[in-house]
Design a protein that fits this description.
Blueprint (H helix, E strand, L loop, with lengths): L16 E8 L2 E12 L10 E7 L8 E6 L16 E5 L5 E3 L10 E7 L8 E6 L11 E5 L6 E5 L8 E7 L8 E6 L9 E6 L3 H4 L8 E16 L8 E7 L6 E6 L3 E2 L2 E2 L12 E3 L11 E8 L8 E7 L12 E4 L10 E3 L1 H4 L13 E7 L8 E6 L14 E5 L6 E5 L13 E5 L8 E5 L13 E6 L13 E5 L2 E5 L12 E7 L7 E8 L7 E5 L11 E9 L12 E4 L11 E4 L4 E4 L10 E10 L5 E5 L4 E6 L7 E10 L6 E11 L6 E2 L6 E4 L4 E4 L4 E2 L9 E6 L6 E6 L4 E6 L5 E10 L5 E13 L4 E5 L4 E4 L4 E2 L6 E8 L5 E5 L4 E6 L7 E9 L6 E10 L6 E2 L6 E4 L4 E4 L4 E2 L9 E5 L5 E5 L5 E6 L5 E11 L5 E3 L3 E6 L7 E2 L5 E4 L4 E4 L2 E2 L7 E8 L5 E6 L5 E6 ...
Parallel strand pairs: 38-44, 46-53, 54-61, 63-71, 73-80, 82-89
Antiparallel strand pairs: 1-2, 2-30, 3-4, 4-5, 5-6, 7-8, 8-9, 9-10, 11-12, 12-13, 13-14, 14-15, 15-16, 16-19, 17-18, 20-21, 21-22, 22-23, 24-25, 25-26, 26-27, 28-29, 29-30, 31-32, 32-35, 33-34, 33-36, 36-37, 39-42, 40-43, 41-42, 43-44, 45-48, 47-51, 49-52, 50-51, 52-53, 53-56, 55-59, 57-60, ...
């Protein structure tokens, strides 16, 4: 920012000397002493000074003083004094001389500030005036410094005539490289006149000559505005505004916060636009319900060292009713950008003192901040001054409040009036190290207010013998200039954390005073640690091709400054850029620029980029290709949006860096028709119900609110039973049916905006009806079907059908739905009288879901008896009888067997069939000695429902002889060997030659151990097949029968045990390398003997020829049966040795298996043994040869 921080408004009033003592409880810790010297040499020349300023007016390195004169206070009648500002030049250091020239004497000054309005490196003076004196020049002025700090040229601020301008502030609001001015206008304190504030945009940076644009007024409501301040409250690099006002009764103040790039709705991104509406407002009070009358001065300082500026207020005419007085300190809550620039009162900082009512300050007219005790934190001086009757002693004094730092609270120092008088009226106060002795001094301004003329004097107070604990910081040590950005780093300070350091930056065309181009203070560091940077683009008046010098000074939180760094060099060698400004784009269009067309020397630019300086970057896309073609594409429907875009051309010479031009991009609004955000849905619903949707949910118009869209609804079918209802207020459309109607209809919707631009869409609306019976009756032992698809109207919709049995036994009914959506319901057999509740559900895509519940009844139906067996032909001898159990032949699911009535039919009179009514045993007999064959005999079974069923027809044969039983030939006992099977012939004779049948039964023994069967073809035999390895005894009986009589014979089957030899298999081959350890195998793992336990097995082995086997020692442990193989050392052979291992059981039966044992060769190193003897021989004698073969052995080599 191009704003100067070496400007302070107002100051503590004093007289003679002022002693201020820091109170920590009741025990003083140190003393801060001020000795006062009048700026006016005699009481008669005293001025009515409301504002005092300090700044280096003559650029000699020490601060000078300016007083703004002419104010006489709130309660003073006319005539108001007309007095020019005064300039006090500090030369020699600590001595001030009135050097005022060039100021009009007929102004009634209220406030002022020192800023460099024309970027020449010299401070200029801005003065606002009070219009209450009819003889006064009622305009606000900028007095331009001629370069020596003494001579000034006056320039009127436009449209400032006739205002009551209580406050002024200045700063580069729009970051265009020059200082803009803000004026707070408040009307007369003694009348109801109200005014708005003014923003004056400086045009110097754009034109090179000093002028101010006509003012923009703010806010929209006029009022009594009492002071104004600019600072970067939310640390976003853009200045913000703090504005105070009081109500018409002058008994309650309100503070407004204007954030750059914000309005009352939040972030807009329109940085640099004049302020309009405050983002936050609050009414300061003292925490005890006592409101402040009006704010006369605002100070900004980081009192709690959190890196964000806090606000302090000087309150006039404050009369508390209760409680300990609190000084209005409001802490900045900007910590995470959630609510940037918001402030809350903090009681910890704002408590004045703890000594009771005698220490209350009734009125504060001015404030200044600084590190007065040199401990590295921010302290506060408040100037008292109550109009009217004299307050009690010390309740209207000037006070210094020291920041305790560790507890972040202010401790009070109560100061006496400078002449021991109890009446002060300090309106102006500021601070600076006036005599360059390393501590902060004070300057006060004291206007005339119903007091003797000797009180109308301004003073410089020199602080003497302070505790010097805050040392000056060190300047940066690292410097770099890249493109349009200056970087520096390496600054340090003993008391202040490096992240809290700020910097002053000076840029000149020569490396000496006198030709300053720009001077910037309060540059916050960028990034972590002790470093900072600033961009050159904010100063467009810097000429291409020039070389500039720049240096940096470090400032700590106590306003201590380092010495200036050495001069650094930065060259600007950019060609002129003439990109059209502004660039206008039609809404929903784009703009294509050939950037090289707007460069005086296209060959000097190698590539391009663009930065969005202000405006929402998310709403525009800027693409620049390698040929310098820029394509600017705003988002759709962003008419009215504006951006400030900086186009950067990268110079072919890296030392030149970037050549930039700031351009405004505007998007003109074009009316857009409404558009459907999503297609209107087709509607499907059930007949008898309704369906509706909100049309506003599907429409969007960038210019017209959805509530203002005009809708037309057109039903395209003529069926009167289809109903469409449209609510023109809510834009909700509802569909319904009459008279159980089902079918489909098209409906057309047209949305039109206020400009009659419209959009149309047609949808299909379908009402579906399901018709299914409520009850289905199914006769027992049958089924029924339901055509589910045919039950839906209109047809053709793709539905998936499912069902659920809600009640009834689900195991007694079967339900299926085939691919044609036909449901088949099949109750189980014989379930008459049972009911079920069945729910059918139809679901599909974009169709309504149907659920229908029906009752399924299984109706009872009588079942006739049923014969389950065929009655065989009957044969018996005359004189005998024959019986049949009729109940064994029939079943009836509806009746018990004792409920069935039986009758018999026979065509033969001599054949008698008697049926027992209880047992249902039918007995055949003959009458009169009859014999023969009777055909077509049958039985009839009848239930109690008179359902009769005939049996099969059978034949009854009566033989005219006596039946004799068959006679079986005795069967001899049978002996078999284990694992052996055999068959034995069966013989029997029958005197009647009747056909015979054979059977057997096991009387005792393990019947499951032998498979037994009787075969009669060609002749009867009984066969035995014992299970493997089984032996034992079975007692059997064989029976032979004719049709009526039988004969049996028992016998014994004995299976004799037979020894099974051991089975040896699976012994693995073994292969080991030469000189391996012995190998073992447990032979019991490879033998099976069903008759002998393993301990009873005996093992032997033999070498199988042609193997030798002498080189391997083999042994078998007789108890464990583990065999051990131990090859000779150093022996190997490529051919295996074969061994046969034999297992022998107790019966001397045996089994064997052959394995191969191989020892592979491994080369052995030669061995020297015995050692080769030492050779000793005399000089000149022959050496005695040694035969080395006598000392070496190699088992593998000769």
């Amino acid at each position: 920012m191009a704003q100067l921080s070496i400007v302070s408004n107002r100051s503590v009033w004093g007289w003679g000397f002022l002693v201020l003592i820091v109170l920590m409880g009741s025990c003083p810790v140190w003393a801060v002493t001020f000795s006062g010297t009048p700026l006016d040499p005699a009481p008669a020349t005293g001025k009515n000074s409301r504002t005092v300023l300090v700044g280096d007016l003559d650029n000699d390195g020490d601060p000078d003083i300016v007083t703004i004169n002419g104010y006489r206070g709130v309660d003073v009648g006319s005539p108001y004094p007309l007095e020019a500002p005064q300039i006090f030049i500090n030369d020699p250091v600590g001595t001030f001389t009135d050097n005022t020239t060039g100021f009009p004497s007929n102004i009634n000054g209220l406030d002022g500030t020192l800023v460099d309005v024309n970027n020449d490196g010299y401070l200029d003076l801005v003065v606002t005036t009070d219009a209450r004196n009819s003889s006064a020049d009622k305009k606000s002025y900028v007095f331009v410094n001629s370069g020596n700090g003494i001579n000034y040229t006056a320039m009127e601020l436009p449209s400032s005539d006739g205002k009551h301008s209580w406050g002024v502030a200045a700063g580069d609001w729009d970051r265009d490289g020059d200082v803009d001015i803000f004026v707070a206008n408040g009307g007369s304190l003694t009348s109801s006149t109200t005014e708005t504030c003014q923003f004056f945009a400086n045009n110097f940076a754009g034109s090179g000559s000093l002028s101010f644009a006509p003012p923009v007024t703010f806010p929209s409501t006029s009022s009594h505005y009492t002071d104004i301040l600019v600072a970067d409250l939310n640390r976003d690099g853009w200045l913000d505004v703090v504005l105070s006002r009081t109500n018409s009764a002058w008994d309650e103040s309100t503070v407004h916060i204007f954030l750059n790039g914000y309005d009352e709705t939040g972030f807009t991104g329109n940085y640099g636009d004049p302020p309009t509406t405050p983002v936050y407002s609050f009414i300061p009070d003292d925490g005890h319900g006592n409101t402040y009358r009006f704010v006369l001065d605002i100070a900004v300082a980081d009192v709690n060292a959190d890196g964000y500026p806090d606000l302090l207020f000087a309150i006039d005419r404050y009369v508390p009713s209760s409680g300990t007085t609190r000084f209005p300190v409001w802490l900045n809550q900007t910590t995470d950008a959630v609510e940037p620039g918001k402030f809350v009162q903090d009681a910890t900082f704002s408590t004045l003192d703890a000594t009771g009512a005698t220490q209350l300050i009734y009125s504060t007219r001015s404030l200044t901040v600084g590190d007065f005790d040199n401990d590295g934190d921010t302290d506060l001086v408040a100037g008292g001054g109550l109009s009217g009757a004299n307050p009690p002693a010390n309740q209207n004094a000037d006070r210094l409040y020291l920041n305790s730092g560790s507890q972040f609270s202010f401790d009070t120092i109560v100061g006496s009036t400078l002449d021991q008088h109890s009446y002060n009226h300090t309106h102006g106060i500021t601070t600076a190290d006036l005599n360059q002795d390393g501590d902060l001094d004070l300057v006060t301004g004291n206007p005339f207010v119903n007091t003797p003329s000797e009180y109308r004097r301004n003073y410089m107070f020199d602080q003497t013998n302070p505790p010097v604990t805050n040392t000056a910081p060190q300047p940066p040590t690292v410097f770099e200039s890249v493109g349009d950005t200056l970087f520096w780093g390496g600054a340090t300070d003993t008391e202040t954390d490096s992240v809290l350091l700020t910097y002053n930056l000076e840029i000149r065309r020569v490396d000496s005073p006198g030709d300053s181009v720009i001077y910037v203070s309060g540059v916050n560091p960028v990034g972590a640690g002790n470093q900072g940077q600033i961009n050159f683009y904010y100063a467009p008046y810097l000429r291409s091709g020039d070389t500039y010098y720049w240096r940096v000074q470090t400032v700590d939180t106590g306003f201590k400054t380092s010495v200036w760094s050495g001069w650094q060099i930065h060259s600007i060698n950019c060609p002129d850029l003439s990109i059209p400004d502004p660039l206008n784009i039609v809404e929903d269009d784009r703009l294509i620029l050939d950037l090289y067309q707007y460069v005086t020397d296209p060959d000097s630019i190698s590539s391009w980029s663009a930065d969005i300086v202000s405006g929402d970057p998310a709403l525009i896309d800027i693409f620049i290709n390698s040929s310098g073609i820029a394509i600017l594409t705003p988002n759709a429907n962003v008419g009215g949006e504006t951006w400030n875009v900086r186009f950067n051309g990268n110079h072919v010479n890296p030392s030149v860096g970037t050549c930039s031009q700031l351009v405004t991009v505007n998007v003109s609004e074009v009316n857009d028709p409404p558009e459907f955000t999503t297609p209107l849905p087709d509607v499907n619903f059930r007949t008898g119900e309704t369906a509706s949707f909100d049309l506003d949910a599907y429409i969007f118009d960038v210019e017209t609110d959805t509530s203002n869209i005009n809708w037309t609804v057109n039903q395209l079918c003529s069926d009167p039973d289809f109903q469409v209802d449209f609510n023109s207020s809510t834009h909700v459309v509802t569909f319904s049916t009459l008279n159980n109607w089902s079918g489909s209809c098209q409906v057309q919707f047209t949305a039109a905006d206020d400009s009659s631009a419209q959009v149309t869409q047609t949808i299909d609306v379908t009402a579906y009806r399901l018709t299914l019976p409520a009850v289905v009756d199914i006769p027992e032992d049958s089924n029924t079907t339901l055509d589910l698809a045919a039950a839906l109207s209109p047809s053709g919709a793709a539905y998936d059908w499912t069902y659920q049995v809600l009640s009834g036994n689900t195991s007694l009914i079967t339900i299926t739905i085939n691919g044609s959506d036909v449901a088949t319901l099949t109750p189980g057999p014989e379930v008459g009288g049972i009911s079920w509740q069945v729910e059918f559900t139809a679901t599909g895509t974009n169709v309504p879901t149907f659920t229908h519940t029906l009752t399924v009844n299984a109706l009872e139906v009588n079942d006739c008896p049923e014969f389950t067996q065929t009655i065989a032909d009957v044969n018996f001898y005359r004189g005998d009888t024959y019986e049949i159990d009729l109940d064994s032949l029939v079943t009836d699911v509806d009746h018990a067997k004792n409920e069935i009535n039986w009758t018999a039919y026979t065509p033969c009179d001599s054949l008698q069939i008697d049926i027992d009514n209880l047992t249902h045993i039918a007995t055949f007999s003959v009458l009169g000695g009859w014999s023969g064959v009777c055909d077509t005999v049958r039985f009839i079974a009848t239930d109690d429902s008179n359902c009769a069923v005939n049996s099969n027809i059978f034949t009854v044969t009566v033989t005219d002889t006596v039946n004799y039983p068959p006679v079986i030939t005795p069967i001899s006992d049978v002996d078999l060997l284990e694992d052996e099977d055999d068959c034995v012939s069966l013989h029997a004779s029958d005197p009647n030659d009747d056909p015979l049948t054979w059977s057997y039964q096991v009387l005792s023994g393990e019947a499951d151990s032998v498979n037994i069967s009787i075969v009669t073809d060609p002749t009867p035999v009984i066969c035995f097949d014992p299970h493997p390895n089984w032996f034992g005894t079975l007692e059997l009986e064989v029976t032979v029968c004719d049709s009526f009589l039988c004969d049996s014979d028992p016998f014994t089957l004995t299976v004799l045990p037979l020894n099974d030899p051991p089975v040896v298999q699976g012994i693995p081959d073994i292969t080991i390398p030469e000189d391996s350890t012995s190998q073992t195998l447990n032979l019991d793992d490879y033998v099976l003997d069903v008759d002998s336990p393993l301990p009873n097995i005996a093992w032997t082995y033999e070498v199988v020829p042609p193997s030798d086997g002498s080189q391997i020692a083999v042994s078998i442990d007789p108890v464990t049966h583990v065999v051990t193989f131990a090859p000779d050392p150093d022996w190997c052979d490529t051919d295996p040795i074969s061994y046969r291992f034999t297992a022998t059981d107790d019966s001397l039966d045996s089994g064997s298996d052959v394995i191969n044992f191989t020892v592979t060769c491994v080369n052995d190193a030669p061995v020297i043994d015995p050692p080769v003897p030492d050779a000793i021989f005399n000089e000149d004698t022959d050496f005695e040869y040694v035969d080395l073969d006598n000392y070496v052995h190699d088992v593998d080599h000769v």
